[in-house]
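worker-3 :: picked Sister chromatid cohesion protein DCC1
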Amino acid sequence: MEENKGTYVRSLEDVKSIIKYAKLDERNLTQVTQAIYYPSESVISDNLKLLELDEHMLQQIHLGQKLYFKGGLTEKVVLCTDERTYDVKGAEISNSLLLVPELKFGAATSTSPLKSPRNAANVSLERSLNDSTDDELSLDRSLEQKQISNIFHEYLECREIRPRFRKLGDLLLLTRYSGPENEEFIDRKFLFSFEQLQDTIQCSRKQFMEGLQKYRAIQLQDHMRVLESEYEYRIINLMVGLINENSWPIDEVEKEETINALNGIAAEEIVEGLFEIYTFPTEGKEERYTYKEDLVARIVAQYILQPGLKFRVDEFLSSWQEALPEDMKCEEKYLRGLGIFDKEGSIAFIRSLNEESLPLNIHERMRLLFKTKSKWTLEEIEPYIEYFTTAALTVSTLMAKYARSLMEDGTRYYVAKH
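worker-3 :: tokens ->
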């Protein structure tokens, strides 16, 4: 390789001289020689970065999809496809990598079938059958000049991560909707459109839609909003109450009738938005819908489990079931990340513990969790720390690092390390 400081470039005579001094047999070489030159000082290549791609990202590029970076001034940058999110960080390369546009590889540098790498085994046979002189075996060699565009000493390493939804929830909570009478107290500068939020939140488009579902966001007057929990419960309670009022089978809920019934009580956008979130089309029954039991059960449980209150488990389950429509059941799995059971005494109790209200620092969260409850099973604590997991970092690994385990009556519990 040459350092191209002036106008000097290699010639064919130079190449032949090098081959001769290197004591190489030109008949064993392909016919195209490429002279590679280091970039001159006039070449600006700071805008070139080496990016690691996995199979998913490579497939997205082949399909014509875009990869895009996201991150605010104080945030670590992430790389997103339409479906996944990747953490991005710089990593050093042990050997420098050169970027040479249009560089030819072995097979492309041969113009003779005999000299093709696939036919290299035939070279010795040809020699034994042909005693021609060097002049007679003179090859038509060509020379191509190649310029290095950049020299890489590091690359951008990508690691798939869970979508960072917490910022989405924090932004939406700034403008909780609790009825038209309270809209005058909302700071309008904190109202965001769908597009503004999507550009801000560090996750893929698919994951962003999942995040909106997670926080039960609806579009109200061109802005994405979440409802204040008691207001949301009140509207949902009226909506599901129509099942008994109209004697609808549980899987034959009518959308238009539901919206019309709440006319004057809540804005149509709110009722329609909640209907889209809390129901799904009933299979085989056109224009009929079924409420999602888990979502309805959770909003009711959240309303009963007010922060600071503690209930006997049997009393809570009874109140919870009575508040649900007849054909819906309350199940403990619906309380995941919403409430915790305390079964250490003779009487079992339950109290509120909402995962969305916990600290984002894992040390602070662990301290708070063990302050709230002295010992946990892996299943109990999982919904409260899975936020910190990755493809390589499981809940079990996190507990081994931040807690210590003990066995009691055949059950493994985790307690604070200190």
